[in-house]
Every structure is written in structure tokens, then in C-alpha cells.
Amino acid sequence: MIAKHVAMRSPSRSSMADLVSYLSDDQGLHERVGDIRITNCASATLDAAVAEMLATQQLNTRAKGDRTYHLLVSFQAGEQPTPEQLQAIEQRICDALGLGEHQRVSVVHHDTDNLHIHLAINKIHPRRLTFKEPFQSYRTLARVCAKLEREFGLKADNHTPRRSTAEGRAADMEQHAGIESLMSWVRRECLADMQRVGSWAEMHEVLAAHGLRIHERGAGLSIEADDGTRVRASTVDRGLSKQSLEERLGRFQASSASHTGHPRKTYAYRPKRTRVDTTELFARYQRERDSAYETRVAELAAAKRSKDLAVENAHRVYRLHAATLRVVDGRGIDKRLLYAQASRNLKNKLREIHEDYGRQRQRIVAAHGRRAWADWLKSQATKGDAEALAALRARSEAENLHGATIRAAGQATGVGAAPDIDTVTKAGTVVYRTGSSAVRDDGQRLQVSREADKEAVRAALRLARQQYGDRITVTGSIQFKAAVVRAAVDLGLPITFTDPGLERHRQVLMQKEYPNGYPQPEPGRRAAGPRDGGLHRQRPANPASGHARRAVQPKPDARRAGAEPPPRASDRLRNLSELGVVRQRQGGQELLPGDVRGGVEHEGTQRADAVRRSIHRPGGSRGSGGRGRGVSQPPPPVARARGAVQAKPARRPPLDKTPPPQARVRPQAAPQAQRATVEKPRVAKVGTKPPPGAAVRLRPLSAVDPGQRGPVTRTPASPAAPAPAATAGWSIPGAIFSPAAYTAADKYIAERESKRARGLDVPRHTRYTAGAGPLTYAGTRTVDGQLLALLKRGDEVLVMPIDATTAQRLARTGLGTPAKVNANATISTGTGRGLSR
């Protein structure tokens, strides 16, 4: 564990409001912001707490230093302390610094490989209004961190600095930017030759051969490269200090002769050497950097020209106004008031012009700013560039993920879509978003971060087999290992655990729940267990029926778990003489012979437009792959009234089985009224669906709510799934979207509003509706595979579904571009092009 004070370069730039806003901003990442805690404040929300701390700082009028203390507490990779432990560690560190009673806001971040906490502490005491500046805080932090590591069982860090300040800065540059420093290059290329020289002339020759020069600077010596980069000689090695060299070579002598010829090697701005060749990647990075620089210069120049033109127009209007006032009849105070009003209008106009110009500059710099090499690799890896991801992972030789991890080897399938990428760290760890949790992949192992729910464990197991192999190694707690084995059994993945105990446990669960193996998948479909996709469980055979056990084929849109499975003789219909009393689970209700139609054994004609395989949907009929009835007929009224089990259509017999006698001899045609037309409960439009209690009986018309009366339309095809309640009453005129698109939009709105309710700096999000006020483009999002557009109107963000083509076109549109949704459901931007949705 490492704790350090993050100091601002200028106290005037330190702002509590800006710091808290930065810490609480999720930046569009699911895994960035964790728990937020407010301490020693009377306010409960984040905005109110910031206002309270700012008011407290204003009450002290004598303090001249920085009034905000930014503290960072970072843990080693793989460590995941509990929220209670984090709170205790935070309080202990603040007490050691003498800031335990001060107001503070702490934010937990998960966007890197190391869990870390940011603390924004008010240096002004809330009651005494005194100013507290911790003295030599690095010593106090080192001492308390070492003590907390022992108490909480954390990995020990070296809290004694082993590098000088300049050496530490060079190492920080290499770590964060990924560029080799001059210090490292000199150590690698010519340090050994510099230590063997016997005179200053030889020293100058060695340095010149590498494009370097050494000269006096201040009280020491400085080594300078051809591009102007300098490093202190004592930073490269203590033996190169001025005192050490003069003791060995005599008094310092500057280079007297100019060395001819080209140096063998020269230092240049290039990536640090790793096991991956990044020559082509770095060349592409330099081209994009130069192109971004040219674009930024051109757009900034255009923005300045527009600003100057607007200023000139404002002054021209003022001069015309003043000239008009001079010729207007009037005297005294009235004319002075008119001149003052014209002057105020000019000042307000100029202020608006300069504010707009400042916002435009910020937008241009943000869009075309210069990014470091490591940041560019991170952005490219997030877009799916495998070479950039490999270069990132080559920068860190240490294993980043520890604890509850899954590692795989063997034969990888490479089939299947991976979850959405939330972010990529500078160490090359890919963070996949899976519901409320996340799965981290460092190229060797996968880790379930934060709340390890079932969906996250399943996603990690699928990714491990898909990308790495089918031999799984699990590390972590007993509970985590049991969850992984349970997920493997539920998903039906053909994997093997390297741990003999886990493998035996998996086989025991397999034999216990599926003694005859998993159901065989249909062509193009994977096999899966009953908890993956809602497939039916396999029913045991009944010895009295004379039929062997048979695996149930996977069916899409299967009913919920616990619903009544298909009959055991699903490949044919049994004669009524073979049946006893058919009962439902809910009670003893009988299906009488008189309730069954006479033509139930007749197959009928096949629909020409039906699908070729058997499809089973709740509330609908089977397709032509079953018995081919395209239109379902309602069941007999007597059977409904008595709550009997509705007979199901017969299935087509398997290809390798002989059809039963009842299916071999059938009439060629049957009257339409005698076909086996059994219908399951349907889902109709809103307002016509009967309550669950009336699903197995008919109610008198007098018992039906008058608002629900009316004819119930029955469609010949399988009924559509009911629209989610959250999307009821929401539709965009002129646009046709599936209910899933509106559901995804509502899900995103709910997620943003929940963060806004927690006090985060998130604008209000709502559904798109036509209204007054200009719209601006605020970005696109992908939720559950559905594309969404964000349109900003005033202080709120409107969310509306879009298609893939629109998303690609909007990606080329800058943020803040004026937009308009036309009457024909198209989005028009400031470029004048209509983007059809």
C-alpha cells in the first residue's frame, strides 16, 4: 500500500469543487467510480458537501497556501479490501496527518490494475477555522502505511525512497508515457565506456560518438543530446558526478575540438524496448500525432478568425448605435442613459464572444490534443487493435491479476462474441462489462472484479474457454471455486479442471443432475444446461410407459424454470384408452373424453411459409417442424371451463426412429374444423390481457372490467413477446424500433439517474420527446447490443434509439454540433446532411 500527497503546481489552481468533480466523474466508464464517502460534513449529498467545504474555506481570510489537500492511497494489484477496511484505513491515515476532524470526500476508483482511493481534504478546520499543513507528510505516510500493512495483512511495499528526485521523474515518464528517457538510454548505450575513460578528451570522444555533449551546469555536470534533452550526469550514475570525475580525470575540461563524422548512435524520442517490435506502430502513432497537430492548428486559426470577425461586428454595431444617438434629439440624463446602455450591450456581446471562443478552443484541443505513446496505445486497444494491446502488455512483465482468477490452457474455440469492452489499462488489462460487475483479462488469466455475481463468473468462464483453452485452473477462495464449478455445470461447457478435487466435484454434479449427458445441440447451436438460456430439464423415464429416456432438444423462447415440461411421449399422440387422469400441478382437474376433439390424431396440411424446424414459444403453436399447423385454433370451451390440461401438438418423429402406428396411417386430408388446434395462453395488446387467475377458465362477461372489454384479436402467427412495462406509451413518430431498443434506452436512463441520485455530477437523462429548445449532439452509447443517441437540450440529455448506419455517421460529427430531429424521424446536424435512422 502506498499513500502520497498529490500537490498542485500552483495553489491558485487548486479548487475543491474542480477536484471533487474530477474524482466523481465516471468518464463514461462502468468500472471507474466506486464508493463515495462524505466525512465530517453536515450535508448528505455531494454538491451540498462541496458547497459546505468552500464556505468553510472562505471563513479563513489569513491562510495564503493551498487550502485543499489531495491524498492518493493505492493498493497492490490483486488486493481488494472490503469497504469497512477501506474506511478504517482512510480514517487512520487522516488521523496520522492531523486531518482526522477535517471535512473530506473520498472516492474509490477501479479503472486501473490497482485499486486506489482519492481523498479531497479541506485544510481549514470546520470549527476552529485553523489552517493545517502536514509537515513532511511523506515520512508520516510511510510510517503509517507500513503499520497498516501488518495489521490488515496487505502486501508490503518499500516505503524508503531509493531514487533521487530526477531519477524518479525519469522513471515516472517511462511508466506513464512509455518513452525511453535519456537517463536509461545513456545507461544502456555508453555508461560502460564512460566509466573506462582515462582523460577528458576520451570522455568527449565517447559522448560525441553517441551524439552527446557534457558541460558544466550550475554546481554539477549535465549531459545533453542533439535534440536538446538534458540529464544530470550524477543522475545517470553517482560515479559521473563532477566531484567523482575530477578526482579521477582532473579538473573539468570542456571539449576544445569539434568532432567530425556522424555519431554511431543518437538518442531519439522512441518507445522503451520490449519483447514486441513496435516500429510500425510508433510510425503510425507519429503520423496520427502530426496530422492531429496540423488539424488543431488549422481549426484554432479558423476559430480565432471567427472570433475576431465577431468582435469587429460588435464594435461596428456599437459605432452605428453611437452615431445614431449623436443625431437624435435629446439632452441631459436621457442621452447619457442611452450611451450607457449601448456600452453595456457592447460589453455583454464581447463577453459572450470570448466565452464561446474559449469553449470552442477547449473542444478543439480535446478532440485533436497530443496524446502520449501509452495513451495512444490504450485508445487503439480499446477499439480492438490486437497489435496495440500486445504492445501494452509487453510494457509490464509482472503478473497484474491475482486473487480470484481463472486461467485456461489447451485448445481454444475462438467462437462467440465477447462482452463489451469498458476500458483498457496501461498495463494491457482489458476490462469487460458484465452487468453490475466486470471481468478483467491480462492476457494470461481472467479475474472477476468487485461483486462476483453469477453472470460475471459465467462470462469469465466462457471467455477463458473461448480465448485460451478448455483446461481450466482456478485460484481464489473456496466460495469462488464452487461458483466456477457450478457455472461450468450450468453452461454445459466441455472443459476439464486441472485441480482433481474440482474436477471430481464437477463430474459428481454432472452425474447427479444429468445422468444421460447434456442435450445435443441443434446445427449451429451450442449445447447448454438448464440454467443457460432457460432450457427444459431432462425428464426421467417412466418404466410403465415402455419408453427410454430421451434428451430434450433445445427450444428458443423456452418457458420459465418450473413450468410444466412437454409430455413424455412427445413424438406422438396417445389414444385416450392409454390415458388415466391427466392432472395439472396446481390441482386435480380432469380432461374428460368428451372434451377432446375427434380429429386430434389428424395431422392436416403443411403451411408453405412455415419454418423448417420445430419452434416452441410460450403462448404460441409449434412451427412446421412439429406438426405444421400454421394457425392455432382455440381449445374447446368445455376444456377451458374445467381448467383441463390442453393437449399439445404432436412432434415430427426423429429421423432414426420408425413412426408410431398412429402416425403411419392417417387420412390424406381432414376438415378444417377437425384439425388438432390447441392454443396456449396468448399475450394480446395492452388492456386485453386477462389476469393470471383467468388463464385456465372463461369468465362471464359481467365479471370483466368495462375498460378491458372488446374483441380480442388472435393472429395466426406466434404472438410477439409483451413489451416491457418501462416502454409502455413511448414511441417516436416516424420510427420503428423493437421493444428491446426502447428497453435499452430506459435501462441507460435508469443507470445515469441512479448515479445522479448518489450525488455524482451527471446531467438529467430522460426519454426523447419533441419539444422547444435547440438540440446538440452529445454522443452515442451501446447498451445490450442496442445503439442509442444522446441529444442535449438545455440542462438535460435526451436518449433515443438509432441504427448502426446512423451511429457510424454520428461518430464523424463533433460533440456539441447542433442537431435537429425532423418530422420524418431523421437527425439533421449542423453539416446540413440528414442522418436517417
Automatic annotation (TrEMBL):
Q: Where is the composition biased (Basic and acidic residues)?
A: 598-612
Q: What is the name of the gene encoding this protein?
A: traI
The biased composition feature labelled Low complexity covers 663-676, 715-724
Q: Which organism is it from?
A: Azohydromonas lata
What lineage does UniProt assign to this protein's organism? Bacteria, Pseudomonadati, Pseudomonadota, Betaproteobacteria, Burkholderiales
Gly residues: bias regions: 620-629
Protein name according to UniProt: TraI/MobA(P) family conjugative relaxase
Q: Which residues form the Large polyvalent protein-associated domain?
A: 422-508
Region Disordered, residue ranges: 514-724
Q: Which residues form the TraI-like middle domain?
A: 167-254
InterPro entries attached here?
A: Endonuclease_MobA/VirD2, LPD7, TraI-like_C, TraI/MobA_relaxases, TraI_M
Question: What Pfam families does the database record attribute to this sequence?
Answer: LPD7, Relaxase, TraI-like_C, TraI_middle
- Provide the TraI-like C-terminal domain boundaries: 744-827
What's the superkingdom here? Answer: Bacteria
